[in-house]
């Protein structure tokens, strides 16, 4: 019986690890979540989005948007106007990341405070 419990625990750990790896594979890099967060306030054209996400190069933004679109987080809308208007918006699927983004925001704030406290101790 003990051996089955060990196998079960190992399986759960393996499954959890696999799920985290899958999530990180889809959201890897430093730009995907900031792009999703920037689009959460509304649709944006490419240049607007580049200004909203400071430090991102146009080539990188283009690549990240394509990957986000392939994974169902972002849609690209082309309006039949002259000149052609292209805008990006998040999908309903992106909203499933709400708790993840909120948890990362909270942890990031906590981490900054922790670092500040450590630096004050050193001074």
Automatic annotation (TrEMBL):
It comes from the Bacteria. It holds the Pfam family HxlR. Keywords: DNA-binding, Transcription, Transcription regulation. Coiled coil: none annotated. Residues 14-116 form the HTH hxlR-type domain. The keyword Transcription regulation applies. The keyword rRNA-binding does not apply. This is Helix-turn-helix domain-containing protein. It comes from Chitinophaga pollutisoli.
């Amino acid at each position: 019986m003990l051996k089955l419990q060990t196998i079960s625990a190992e399986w759960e750990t393996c499954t959890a690890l696999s799920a985290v790896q899958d999530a990180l594979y889809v959201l890897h890099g430093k730009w995907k979540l900031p792009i999703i967060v920037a689009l959460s306030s509304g649709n944006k054209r490419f240049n607007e989005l580049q200004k909203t996400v400071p430090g991102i190069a146009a080539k990188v933004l283009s690549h990240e948007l394509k990957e986000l679109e392939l994974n169902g987080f972002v849609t690209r809308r082309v309006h039949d106007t002259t000149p052609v208007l292209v805008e990006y918006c998040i999908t309903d699927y992106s909203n499933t990341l709400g708790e993840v983004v909120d948890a990362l925001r909270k942890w990031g704030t906590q981490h900054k405070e922790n670092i500040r406290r450590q630096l004050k101790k050193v001074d």
